[in-house]
Design goal:
Pfam families: Abhydrolase_2 (PF02230)
CATH topology: Rossmann fold
InterPro entries: AB_hydrolase_fold, LYPA1-2/EST-like, PLipase/COase/thioEstase
Family: Belongs to the AB hydrolase superfamily. AB hydrolase 2 family.
Shape: globular
CATH superfamily: Alpha/Beta hydrolase fold, catalytic domain
Strand order of the largest sheet: 1-2-3-4
Structural class: alpha/beta
Protein name: Phospholipase/carboxylesterase/thioesterase domain-containing protein
Number of domains: 1
Largest sheet: 4 strands, parallel
Radius of gyration: 19 Å
């Protein structure tokens, strides 16, 4: 069953690469629950293409126990992986999350496991500062030069220009943004 999900995912990735011009290392896989399990399985599965993803983020997810027990992970991909799990998760225990992280590391992935003591099996909590920082730091560290590790090449690629001088003074916060905060979207 998971193999068919992984194959569908690879078909979607192939469309993005072939028809949309994306590079595979510019793509990030994000999954919650079973979707995270499928995303993690792409890291461990047989290589369909020579390069890896920009990263994989799995929330309340695990590498399936049968994959951990019967998989030689040496053929996996070198991919940055963020696992976000909860100590109170009834479906994915801390032990299962740690076993998943270990298997992914054996496959050559750079894995960051964040287990939050006050978290169950819910989706990302935008109001939770530590969880949000963990998530955003991962992106900042792995966006191929467009985050904290910014580069001139990446800035040229996205058409950004350096900001010179002092930052503008904001006099009215309503002028800055009318977007909803993460707390309002939860």
């Amino acid at each position: 069953m998971i193999r068919s999900g992984v194959e569908l995912l690879w078909q979607s990735v192939n469309v993005l690469i072939t028809y949309c011009g994306w590079k595979q290392d510019e793509l990030f896989l994000f999954g919650y629950g079973q979707g995270g399990t499928v995303a993690l399985d792409t890291v461990l599965g047989p290589s369909h293409t020579p390069c890896g993803f920009g990263g994989v983020i799995a929330v309340a997810s695990e590498v399936l126990p049968e994959r951990i027990a019967h998989l030689d992970a040496r053929g996996g991909r070198e991919v940055a992986v963020l696992l976000i799990n909860g100590a109170m998760d009834r479906d994915v225990s801390r032990k299962a999350a740690e076993a998943s992280a270990q298997k992914l590391r054996q496959a050559g992935s750079n894995v960051q496991l964040c287990v939050f003591s006050d978290r169950g099996s819910e989706m990302l909590r935008g109001y939770h500062a530590e969880e949000s920082i963990c998530f955003m730091t991962f992106f900042s560290d792995h966006l191929n030069g467009v985050g904290r590790k910014g580069s001139e090449e990446a800035m040229r690629k996205i058409g950004a220009e350096p900001v010179l001088g002092e930052a503008p003074v904001r006099t009215n916060s309503a002028e800055v943004s009318s977007a909803h905060s993460l707390n309002e979207m939860d």
